[in-house]
Amino acid sequence: ENPFVVQNCSAFSETLLESELFGHVKGAYTGAHSAKRGLFEVADNGTFFLDELGEMPPSLQAKLLRVLQDGTFMPVGDTREKKVDVRIVAATNKDLNELIKEGKFREDLYYRICGVRIHLPPLRERKEDIPVLVEHFLKSLPSDKPKRFSEGAMALLMNYHWPGNVRQLENEVARAMVLSGSCEVIEADVLSPEIQGEIHTDSRRQTSFEGRLKDAVESLERDMIEAALSKAGGNKSEAARILGISRSNLISKVQQYGLG
């Protein structure tokens, strides 16, 4: 099968993103102890999905335009061109026309990539997709036993406006699965306060206006990390995936809360 490569353009600094996309030669910069193939080379004769394209720095936009126009690029630190045949698919939640006006996105690149445009409405405008997406996430996320949301919990999910769209929904499902513990039915009381519409008191945690917000947030964070580590059998990489954070971030928080 032809390769399908994915890269989020907001995930790295400009220097690291350039190396990820186009590769580098040995000694190209401090720490480049060996040569590295870029993702464009990996995606040769296949498809490259660039997510969050609106976050790509202008200098890299120029290199991307060259790939689109000529099918060529130059790895960092190299003097030789490489040639590739790659289909580019891009996504963004930014208004590229506004970014062009602000000088943050190249107009010539815009016209190169916008031949076929698909507008995906925000999740709040297609709420009939929520039960389907929830079912998908329940099946794809790791769990000791099958889980489902109660009717009340699902009603709250359907009623929420989801400013973070599908990613926020996925994170909410993962969070609810962790907090529901061994229960097969996920009840409304484990959903985030903003989804419940009000902060309430339950037998597991007393919420009041006493004390600092920072302490309350840290307490919840500690509980979620403990639950994720338990569910993952102590595997920090899996626990980080459940929580939607990097492994290094998880390790730092484990040390912070004395959970290691």
C-alpha Rg, in Å?
22 Å
In terms of DSSP E residues, the strand content is: 5-15%
- CATH class membership of the largest domain: Alpha Beta
- Mean pLDDT equals 86
* CA-based shape: globular
Major sheet attributes: 3 strands, parallel
Task: From the 3D structure, determine the CATH topology of the largest domain.
Answer: Rossmann fold
At CATH's second level, what is the architecture of the largest domain? 3-Layer(aba) Sandwich
Number of helices: 12
How does this structure look, described?
Helices cover 44% and strands 10% of the residues. The model is unreliable at 198-210 (pLDDT under 50). It folds into 3 domains: 4-113, P-loop containing nucleotide triphosphate hydrolases (Rossmann fold), CATH 3.40.50; 123-203, Helicase, Ruva Protein, domain 3 (Orthogonal Bundle), CATH 1.10.8.60; 213-257, Homeodomain-like (Arc Repressor Mutant, subunit A), CATH 1.10.10. It is globular and about 60 Å long. A hairpin with an 8-residue loop joins strand 5 (72-73) and strand 6 (82-83). A 3-stranded parallel beta sheet has the order 1-4-7. Strands 2-3 form a two-stranded antiparallel ribbon. It is built from 12 helices and 9 strands. It has 260 residues and is mainly α.
